[in-house]
Amino acid sequence: MATDASALSDEDDLYAAGLTSHGSVNLMLALEERYGVEFPEHLLRRRTFESIAAIRSAVAGLLDGAPGGMEAGGMGAG
Questions:
Q1: Non-local CB neighbours of 58 within 8 Å, separated by 6+ positions
Q2: If phi over 0 gives left and psi between -120 and 50 gives alpha, with beta otherwise, what is residue 20?
Q3: Nearest to 71 by CA among 62, 61, 63
Q4: CA neighbor of 63 nearest in space, from 45, 42, 39, 30
């Protein structure tokens, strides 16, 4: 990415910061490997990876087995 990741807030637009579609695929694959999940087709959308908060919510939903793979509360502050 063109922007230093440590300078981004959870809500910043990652695509505006330099994330490409190729980069989002690599990110998705890394998340799948790290968390042992698989992104279903309905989550393979730009908005799923548009911010750290959106990614956190999608992964949390997948980990929790939530219908649709999304969860309103996110993964928490960690």
A1: 39, 43, 48, 69, 70
A2: beta
A3: 61
A4: 39
Overall size of the chain counted in residues: 78
Looking at residue 11, its amino acid is: E
pLDDT one-digit tens code per residue, 49-73: 999 999 999 999 999 985 544 443 4
Is pTM beyond 0.85 here? no
Q: Cα(78)–Cα(66) distance, rounded to whole angstroms? A: 19
Give the list of residues 6+ apart from residue 47 with CB closer than 8 angstroms, or none.
54
